[in-house]
Each structure stands twice: as structure tokens, then as C-alpha cells.
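User: I would dearly like some help making sense of a protein record. I have put the entry right below:
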Amino acid sequence: MILPIVAYGDPVLRKVGKEIDKDYPQLEKLIADMRETMYNANGLGLAAPQIGKDIRLFIIDASPFAEDEDLSEEEKNFFKDFNRVFINAKIVKEEGDEWAFNEGCLSIPTINEDVFRQEKVTIEYQDENFEKHTETLSGLPARVFQHEYDHIEGVLFTDKLSSLKKRLIKKKLDNISKGKVNAGYRMRFPNAKR
């Protein structure tokens, strides 16, 4: 089932997610619905807060990056299979130089800005079967992970912008929260006039 994506301004996007266990109600259905919602919106990732749930769950399917001609064969092969569920994720270590990349977010449609993030992250998480994993990601996989991870920490990519950039996009953000935006997919707006 395609769920509405929560828009900028909704308080759930600012909550730190709660850990869950394998008894979380209808988890398999929730993950399937999140996938369907993400694909419907042409996203690479979707976090539970973006569908109104303040839990530590997000999904990533970075396989579209495998089509990027600027990537090496090794990178293309990595992205081809980078389709995962992350439960109760933690960043153990961040390292490397910060680098800029143009990011967007399904909860903040029509806004894309360069965001600086560290190049490499070591992470711990559980998959949909609650098997534990420890892994080091670098480059684009690390960036996509960090973006979705921020969601379960109550952080949005716009928080990482300079104060000047934030002032320049303030009106757009206000309009998004009021529903004055055409995202091309179902959304739930916190401040829309009913």
C-alpha cells in the first residue's frame, strides 16, 4: 500500500526514533508498504519518520546508481545489490574528508542543496530478520546511509545548510509545510488549510 509521505514541518520528523524488536506489529507489511511508497515517489531511501512512525527503521535501494556511467565497474556492482533494510542502526565511526553532494528529500520536495558529509562510516544495524551486521560504507553508499540515518535522529538535510542558505529557502519550506507544492506523490502536510 502506498502511504502518504510526511512533509517538512511535521513534528514526527524531529523525533529521535525508538528502537524496535522482532515483535513490532506487522513489521513485514510495514517494510513492504515503505518500499512501495519509496518506489512510487522515485526515492532511493525512506525512513519510518517520513511515513509518520517514530521508530529506528529505514530502507535504501541505491540500485539506480548502478546505471551511472561515471562509476567504476566495482562501484556499479556494489550499487546493483545495495537494497537493504536498516533496523536500530547506529553510526560507530565517521571518518575521512567532508565532501559536498547535491541532496534532496521526499519530505522536502522541490528543494535540492549541496550537503557536506564525511566520506566513510562504520555502522551497526539489524536487517529485517534481526540479524546483526557491522559494515563500513564509503562514498555514495555512506552518504545515502547518513541521510536516512539522520531521519531516525530527528535531523533533516536542510539542518546542515549554512544560515544564508536556510534563509534563502525559508519561504519554500513554509510553502511545503502548508501543502503549496506539487510533489507528484501522496503527501501529508502538517499546516495545510483543510
User: Anything to note?
Assistant: The longest helix spans residues 163-177. Residues 9 and 118 are 27 Å apart (CA to CA). The chain has one domain: 5-188. Residues 5-188 form a domain with the Peptide Deformylase fold (CATH 3.90.45.10).
